[in-house]
Specification:
Helix content: 40-55%
Shape: globular
Radius of gyration: 16 Å
Number of strands: 3
Structural class: mainly alpha
Largest sheet: 3 strands, parallel
Length: 105
């Protein structure tokens, strides 16, 4: 899955090129923020890629806001843990809840 932001179309063109080469879905960060679509599920073996320009040595604020969105991060981690359990890839028990920091009984 490729999350991209493009002010002029250049980053979108790069995202399209990577997406077609890697066979990955594209998600416009600007559109996702506008529509408040902030949770995504990854397919098995799907990668997460971010494509965006750099403005004054920093990513655009919209990209920072999207990445820092707690809902996006929590949903991504929950989905990955669930998939790991489903595919028996998780061999260790979590002793601390990654969202609250509390011990798991």
């Amino acid at each position: 899955m490729i999350f991209y932001f493009s002010g002029t179309g250049n980053s979108q063109a790069v995202a399209n090129e990577i997406g077609s080469y890697q066979n990955e879905r594209l998600v416009s960060i600007a559109q996702a923020m506008k529509l408040e679509q902030l949770t995504y599920s990854l397919e098995s073996e799907e990668k997460v890629i971010f494509v965006f320009p750099i403005y004054a040595w920093s990513p655009p604020q919209l990209v920072v806001d999207f990445i820092k969105n707690k809902k996006v991060i929590e949903e991504y981690i929950r989905n990955q843990i669930y998939e790991d359990k489903m595919y028996d890839q998780m061999s260790m028990k979590e002793f601390v809840d990654p969202f609250t920091g509390e011990k798991i009984k």
